[in-house]
Specification:
With 196 residues, the protein is of the alpha+beta class. The protein is built from five helices and seven strands; from the N terminus they run αββαββαβααββ. It has a four-stranded antiparallel sheet, covered by helices on one side. A three-stranded mixed sheet has the order 4-6-5. α1 packs across α2. The longest helix is centred in the first third of the chain and has 22 residues. It is elongated and about 70 Å long.
């Protein structure tokens, strides 16, 4: 009861300590690892929910986190890192995979002939990366060669996978010149921290 909070365990307070550790210690760890085109991975606490009403010591709390990943990172590795950061501070929380499926980072080889052709038509000299997630990464993860169009126009080529620029009309070629061929895209992991 709120009149004697010292007799209970406040799940909101406990989870707040976990969030502080993640937003400081874990975020600092992520900033140390850099990808040449994507920069560093990120973590963000997007929502937090807990308690039933102000005069009751809350027995549950949960927070949803967004973790932007780099090529090669897995949920298993992210989970291990997060729980390790919490353990170093003597903290515990349940960690749940909100998505239930992989949203990998995209890393397309800029040396592939179709990528070189796309970059040539788009007048792009070198590959770039962006910090948002896109579904093209799932296609690439299934072995389908792909890339993210990027840019504000988000023009999709006629074919997913091997883009045939030879068959593109003049209008398509003009549109492609305004689009950057993004070869590297951050992945995404949705996580939930819980304290009960």
């Amino acid at each position: 009861h709120g009149a004697r909070p010292e007799l209970g365990r406040n799940a909101i307070h406990s989870l707040a300590q976990c969030i502080v550790a993640i937003e400081t210690d874990y975020a600092a760890l992520l900033r140390k690892r850099r990808h040449t085109l994507l920069g560093h991975a990120t973590i963000n606490t997007g929502t937090i929910r807990g308690g039933a009403q102000p005069n009751i010591v809350p027995d549950h709390c949960e927070a949803d986190l967004d973790r932007r990943t780099l090529p090669g990172e897995t949920f298993t590795k992210i989970r291990r890192e997060l729980l390790g950061v919490l353990a170093r501070r003597g903290l515990k929380a349940k960690l749940i995979d909100l998505k239930g499926f992989t949203c990998p980072a995209l890393e397309t080889d800029p040396g592939l002939p179709w990528v070189r052709d796309f970059m040539r038509v788009g007048r792009q000299k070198k590959p770039i990366g962006v910090d948002y997630y896109c579904d093209a990464a799932n296609l690439a993860g299934a072995g389908i060669p792909t890339r993210e169009p990027g840019g504000s126009e988000r023009v999709r080529p006629r074919y997913v996978g091997g883009v045939r620029l030879e068959g593109a009309g003049a209008g398509e070629r003009r549109a492609l010149r305004g689009v950057v061929a993004v070869q590297h895209v951050a992945g995404e992991a949705g996580l939930r921290l819980e304290r009960r």
